[in-house]
Amino acid sequence: MKNKLEEMVNDRQDWAEKRLAKLATDYCRLKLPKYYAGGELFPYLGQNYLLTVVVSGRSARPKCVLSDQRFVVEIKQSDDEVQSDLVKKALDKWYRRQAEAEIGQAVERWSQVIGKAPLSVRIRNQRSRWGSCSRKGSVNFNWRLVMLPPDMLDYVVVHELYHLKQPDHSPRFWSLLEKTVPDFKQKRKRLREYSPYLDFT
């Protein structure tokens, strides 16, 4: 009887692990964490990482690192600030710093492919869009892009860079985009699945 139970458990282990991974992804996609407490899941480049909070007297300022497949936030407890506020500050700073690096690299890489570079790149706190392009040649990107998988981040960057050549969403724009992103229709559809991330605060 014991051997049969072990066989059944082993047979279902792979299924259970995949199911748990999917549940973790759905949790971050549909119910974004708001409490900034240890054990919460936070997304980065399409992967979800557990948050560990360390309260220490050594660090005057909250700081965050991504280490050993988890976010580790070290804070110094204070009387006038709630712990979750300190954790949020550390995570916000980390995300924005990573956004500048990841998006900056993507812009540089794809500008060479497309043959058009923006006059300036700004990382902003947009709540209704992933990116935008001005007629003067500046591009803006939402810092939350670094929560998305790398291919989706690249899609948004390429999309906005092509607006430097074609400012509207005319047939010519989509034709240009298709040359670089043949599956742009699927990526547009996938991008909508990540729209809850725009509410991430």
Overall geometry: elongated
Can you say what the CATH homologous superfamily is? Metalloproteases ("zincins"), catalytic domain
Measure the end-to-end span.
Answer: 51 Å
CATH architecture: 2-Layer Sandwich
The number of E-state strands comes to 7
Described by strand count, sense and barrel closure, the largest sheet is: 4 strands, mixed
Q: What is the alpha-carbon Rg in Å?
A: 21 Å
Content-based structural category: alpha/beta
Side by side, the strands of the main sheet go: 1-2-4-3
Number of domains: 1
Approximate strand percentage: 15-25%
Topology-level CATH name: Zincin-like
Q: What is the CATH class? A: Alpha Beta
List the helices and strands in order: HEEEEHEEEHHH
Number of distinct helices: 5
